[in-house]
Amino acid sequence: MSTALPMNSSAETSKSARSLGVTGRRTVGPVLLLALLLAVPWLPTFWVNLLNNIGLAAMATLGLVLLTGVAGMTSFGQAAFIGLGAYTCAWLTVGTDVPGWLAPIAGSPWLALPAGLLVTLAVAAGLGAVTLRLSGHYLPLGTICWALALFYLFGTLESLGAHSGLTNLPALQIGAWSLDQPADMAWPIWLLLGLALVLSRHLLDSRSGRALRALNGGQAMAESMGVPVFRTKMAAFILSALLAGVSGWLYACNQRFVSPAPFSVTAGIDVMFMALIGGVGHLWGAVAGAVVVTLGRNGLQDWLPSLLGQSGNYESVVFGLLIIALMHRAPNGLWGAIHRRWSRRVDPRRAQPAALPAAAPLPRRVQPTRGQPVLEVRGLTRRFGGLVANKDIDLTLHAGEILAVIGPNGAGKSTLFNQLSCVDHPTSGEVKFLGQSVLGWQPRRMAAAGLSRTFQHVKLLPSMSVLDNVAIGAHLRGRAGLLRSALRLDRAEEARLLGEAQRQLERVGLGALSHVEAGSLALGQQRLVEIARALCADPSVLLLDEPAAGLRLQEKQALAELLRKLRAEGIAVLLVEHDMDFVMNLVDRVAVMVFGEKITEGLPAEVQSHPKVLEAYLGVDL
Ligand SMILES: Nc1ncnc2c1ncn2[C@@H]1O[C@H](COP(=O)(O)OP(=O)(O)OP(=O)(O)O)[C@@H](O)[C@H]1O
């Protein structure tokens, strides 16, 4: 299994990374796991119990890594989902009020697993529907609310044994083998954890994984690339809850006793600590965090009383201080520190990106005929309170032309772009795309219709590879979902998507840098990566917000050449740009905006000598 990182897919997840020696490291995980399991019969029971606790905690923490580190959502309710898995198992196997219709599955801990997952899925879907629309601090606060609610529910429902819980759960059986000892339970715990790590790794190296990671790049970017943001958030939330549910089921089978205390909000905070300490951006961070927190707490409980006396509970205080110190020293967690140390030894820019598997090109969309109006803007007005950012704007963009929108800072150009890509909606007026009104459309629908864009402030995922960043643009050209991706049934499609991403990178002149982290590129190169990402969607219309900003002269010339080629292919390009040389030598027409209004529109030469334009730019009153 790879030690690869979900957030840092660059050097490790791209195939190119193999040249950096990842293949060898991929075998370390399974070999260690097997050695551990084979050693279990010789370990004292105390250590086997610790090992099992680490495995159980790592499983739930893995869910939080996917939710928080990968998808960017914070939850303190993970322990409540562990509780759901555990209590479902306990209630179905020893509950006294299990209804008759559940009789066929009652009493079997094996059948309690799918049942527990169903319950977890249903509860997570319900809670996700009400909390995932919250943003900022409200989301974690929301998770605390329902975590508290579930905790008190576990402790008050008589059928769940209230505060005393449910006891004497049957042991798992495999044929004649009863898994009634901790040493027996180490097998299902660690094998399931290994499986979860492998499936998560597969998932992250896929179209669905890129969609999950795109959530971290902001809602506007993800939606504009065709990622259904809310659905993807829900998927991450449910996936994370299901991993906690499996952990809860294993916990119940291991302890054979379930009570509310281990599923409190405090326990949820502990899971968050494990993720942060291990490295919330790394799958193996879940295991590292579980090891450190479990062993650390245990060690402190043993050593502190002999050092500081029995009178106070200093363990939590010292543990808290150690965590703060660790966060100062290793803000990306232990696994993050290990990864950084390793990647310093290898310069990915010197490594050759490995060849991608040969794959047929993706089908192209039918492009509108040259000269056909693709975007028609009529009377577009956007007010922000008393400020009129766009006022009564008319504009038409045709297939196969490059139109520039220029204007001083604050003229309303980005506001116009946001409305054209449906990231924002006009106060009044109309936008038509290929003759169809886009009123009320979401950016995703606009992307599907054939409009792709870049952003004034680059929106890349800096720790992800350039290739993966670009492949996000091809999201709507693939179909594979979470399950197919996790089971690696998406490889043919994935090869085509990555092939397309590589082609677009070569088109913008960055083919040789596909495997490096996007954040390591210069700003100008990052803008080119955004253009490649937009091209990956096979657009009919390309909106480029300041594409030449930060580019060197040669890069600008290459970009101008690329845009001319796109124009020749019949693509319509609308760009906002401050570099007048770049604009005037490239575009067919120029629209000039000042204080939210379009003051003129015409050929570059006409616009350059227009008195109103001179006045706006030079402050000359003519
Ligand atoms: N969400 C918003 N809420 C309130 N005011 C906004 C919002 N977005 C933009 N504005 C205001 O609208 C005006 C136009 O902003 P916009 O960013 O569209 O200008 P611009 O021409 O793109 O400027 P620049 O070239 O500096 O990027 C500015 O005064 C800006 O402060």
UniProtKB/TrEMBL annotation:
The keyword Cell inner membrane does not apply. Gene3D superfamilies: P-loop containing nucleotide triphosphate hydrolases. Residues 375-620 form the ABC transporter domain. Keywords: ATP-binding, Cell membrane, Membrane, Nucleotide-binding, Transmembrane, Transmembrane helix, Transport. It is a multi-pass membrane protein. It comes from the Bacteria. The chain crosses the membrane at residues 28-48, 54-72, 79-98, 110-132, 144-165, 185-204, 234-252, 272-296, 317-338. It is found in: Cell membrane. PROSITE patterns: ABC_TRANSPORTER_1, ABC_TRANSPORTER_2. This is Branched-chain amino acid ABC transporter ATP-binding protein/permease.
